[in-house]
């Protein structure tokens, strides 16, 4: 009887470890996918010289790709030059 209990406990622990490991791998893959998407969006915005049309198109594509929103904040100087740009994607 003691052996059956130990075996059952071992199977439960192993099942728990599989679930935790799978969750960790899934989270890592989602993070990597989001980082790759961010890099692609930044490269496209920079290549378009911060065009508003491209930014609006990327916002639409973000929603099509399953992101809740894509927020891009352009900060310009008084002469109209773009100083910085920040971006936030939300799944």
For the sheet with most strands, the description reads: 2 strands, antiparallel
**Percent in strands:** 15-25%
Report the structural category. alpha+beta
The stretches of 5 or more residues where confidence is low (pLDDT under 50) are none
How would you concisely characterize the structure shown here?
The protein is an alpha+beta fold and 91 residues long. The protein is built from two helices and two strands, in the order H-H-E-E.
Explain how this protein is built.
A hairpin with a 5-residue loop joins strand 1 and strand 2. By secondary structure, this protein is α+β, with helices and mostly antiparallel strands. The N and C termini lie far apart (49 Å). The radius of gyration is 23 Å and the shape is rod-shaped. It is built from two helices and two strands. The longest helix has 46 residues, at 2-47.
Q: How do the helices and strands line up, and which of them pair or pack?
A:
Elements: H1 2-47, H2 52-64, E1 69-76, E2 82-90
Antiparallel strand pairs: 1-2
